[in-house]
Design a protein that fits this description.
Elements lengths: L2 H32 L6 H19 L2 H22 L10 H22 L15 E3 L4 E3 H23 L1 H11 L1 H6 L4 H23 L9 H16 L4 H21 L4 H15 L13
Antiparallel strand pairs: 1-2
């Protein structure tokens, strides 16, 4: 088999992995910092794709859709946290899981009623149509853009969480909310910011995935499964783990699809099983919750 074909498939896997990383990162942040398993994450990914498509159509620009959809859906996530999730902190982990499962069903069926069940094409922005000659093969401009944008977002997120006062407050508030309240920090705002960020990242993943697949009410279901696999492989609550595992899963799916397409989806579950057998807490997880 041609080596250039394998390399191009590897790059496609990195692009797929980039979308998985940004989506799973939202799930990981919410679980790692709030202890909430957000089963509506896939539905919010899907809502983000629809919002991006609608805003791009309304403004005539993909870029406005890419910018505004994560912000608006992130704000919607804050509303969910304030009205619903906040009441369940300190209770069994099953309570928010069941709540968000029900919310997911409502969101999916609501979108189905409004937009129908058929897939809607998400046009690629004109500036990113076509392929680039990389010397060893041709690679879609849009997928290269996805890789670069996700890398920039990850860097910005890391700098914000690790190098700024806001990031320090968020991390400290997630680890010990009682102490932060004693110090005068409004812990409710910290919870809002964390959940809104997680949902905004899901929406960003949805917008980025839109031009790579059709937008439909069921698109979040597979992504939710993939995001959970990435989260488990990387380690529950581990941000670094989500990045590494997302790329591992994306590359594995892409390379296996080249040789055995029917096995492409199965490979991520096989990878998860192997990792859990060797390291039950995941690649970068520790026993117990971690941020």
């Amino acid at each position: 088999m041609d080596l250039s074909l394998i390399i191009m498939q590897l790059l496609s896997g990195i692009a797929l992995g980039a979308v998985l990383v940004i989506t799973a990162l939202g799930l990981t942040i919410v679980f790692g910092m709030l202890g909430v398993v957000n089963f509506a994450h896939g539905a919010l990914f899907m809502i983000g794709a629809y919002a991006g498509l609608y805003l791009a159509s309304l403004t005539g620009s993909f870029w406005w859709g890419l910018l505004l959809a994560p912000i608006l859906i992130g704000a919607f996530g804050m509303l969910i946290e304030f009205v619903l999730i906040r009441r369940l902190y300190g209770r069994s982990i099953d309570d928010p899981l069941l709540l968000t499962f029900g919310l997911s069903y409502i969101l999916v069926e609501g979108v189905r009623i409004v937009f129908g069940s058929d897939g809607i094409p998400f046009p690629t922005p004109p500036q990113l149509i076509g392929v680039l000659d990389l010397g060893i093969g041709f690679f879609p401009r849009y997928r290269l853009f996805v890789i670069v944008l996700v890398a920039v977002v990850l860097l910005a997120l890391w700098l914000t969480l690790e190098k700024t006062r806001v990031g320090l407050i968020v991390r400290a508030g997630a680890r010990d909310p009682t102490i932060m309240q004693v110090l005068g920090v409004d812990i409710g705002r910290v919870w809002l910011a964390i959940f809104g960020l997680g949902v905004g990242l899901a929406a960003l993943g949805g917008v980025l995935a839109g031009p790579m697949r059709s937008v439909n009410p069921e698109m979040g279901s597979l992504v939710l499964a993939e995001a959970f696999v990435v989260t488990v492989i990387g380690g529950l609550g581990s941000i670094v783990g989500a990045v590494v595992a997302g790329l591992m899963v994306g590359i594995s799916i892409s390379l296996v699809a080249l040789f055995a397409p029917e096995m492409a989806t199965i490979v991520m579950f096989a990878l998860m099983a192997v990792v859990l057998l060797i390291r039950p807490q995941g690649l970068f997880g520790v026993r117990g919750r971690t941020a």
